[in-house]
Amino acid sequence: MKLLKIDHLGIAVNSMDEGKKFWSDILGLKFEGSETVQEQKVTTGFFPVGESEVELLESTAPDGPVAKYIEKKGTGIQHVAFRVENIEEALAELKEKGVKLIDQEPRIGAGGAKIAFLHPKATSGVLVELCQR
Ligand code: ZN
Question: N or C: which end of the chain has fewer CB within 10 A?
Answer without folding.
Answer: C
